[in-house]
Amino acid sequence: MGPVGPFEPPYYAVVFSSLRTPGDNDYGATAERLEELVAAVPGFLGMDSARTPGGLGITVGYFKDEEAIAAWRGDPEHREARTRGRKEWYEKYVVHVARVERSYGHE
Amino acid sequence: MGPVGPFEPPYYAVVFSSLRTPGDNDYGATAERLEELVAAVPGFLGMDSARTPGGLGITVGYFKDEEAIAAWRGDPEHREARTRGRKEWYEKYVVHVARVERSYGHE
What we know:
homodimer; alpha+beta; four-stranded antiparallel β-sheet; 3 helices; globular
């Protein structure tokens, strides 16, 4: 269940923070399918996801470089899901694309 | 309840992903106190937080620059909390410090 990493910098983090609309509307099945698809993108490193019940969700995807992010953005099923997301699944979301300069972990 | 942003790039995101140990052990009160303190750091832009019950938590703090991150890391109560965190509150955590290059939102 994570957390994934730390990875060797530099790499990229795509932070997706959202509030959902009520109801599922195929969101769960689509999210599972997208997790399978992103795992096959060359340069994908891993992802972490958390959602407070009835509140904010945060998903962070880690990628080797901008090329890997672009490949994922260009995936046809991912594109279609983004369109549905804007119309059906999300009340609001914010995306931050960032270059990771350092990372560390503890356990 | 968020999500915060998007802000004007460049800025920094500090992603903190964690698994908690069982029990509270003052975690809740300390987390509230730290939220008050970080809000007063010059260059702090905002933060988002989510936790799946029994699972992963993700907190992302946004800062104007490295100086703001350093100021927050140097806060004495924050230092003390990090020490307790390693000993008492977290089974495991990973931190990624990243420079945000672009961001966008939808609502």
